[in-house]
Amino acid sequence: MNITVAFNESMPLVGTNPAGHTTLFDTSPEFYGTGSAPSPVDVLLQTLAACSMMDIISILKKKRKQIVTLTAEVDADRAEEHPRVFTAVRIIYRLQSPDAAMVDFERSIELSMEKYCSISAMFRQSGCQIDWTGELV
Considering only CA atoms, which of 58, 52, 137, 33 is closest in space to residue 91? Predict the structure, then answer.
């Protein structure tokens, strides 16, 4: 795996993967940014949600369940001192589906968070507590 991140006179930073896809990273003006893109810490939380959601979608689709919408609301706590690592993360997954039962949904979240999602594994291995709930809407 190989990526690049570049700074060209001003923020945002531009991350590029081998396929040419880009991700923008920025910070507040207080830290010489422009506030025009998410911070790396914001992106890290988004990545946790996206990784697990991709697993959940795959698991539910394999069970032949229809997914109308799936969202994740993420709230996190960070250490007070530097490095300000995440200490706790709470995720609320909301699924709209005409045929998925709560047991299917919860099992797909559990499998993602405990077995498949490499991002959640990295969070947990760093000592971060991850709690989640699922809601059918």
Answer: 52
Q: Give pLDDT tens digits for 60-105.
A: 999 999 999 999 999 999 999 999 999 999 999 999 999 999 999 9
Architecture of domain 40-136: 2-Layer Sandwich (3.30)
- The encoded tokens of residue 1 equal 């795996």
Whether the bond between 18 and the residue before it is cis, its omega within 30 degrees of 0, is no
In whole angstroms, what is the distance from residue 46 CA to residue 85 CA? 15
Distance CA 121, CA 37 (A): 26
Answer whether the bond into residue 98 is a cis peptide, omega within 30°: no
One-letter amino acid for residue 48 of the chain: L
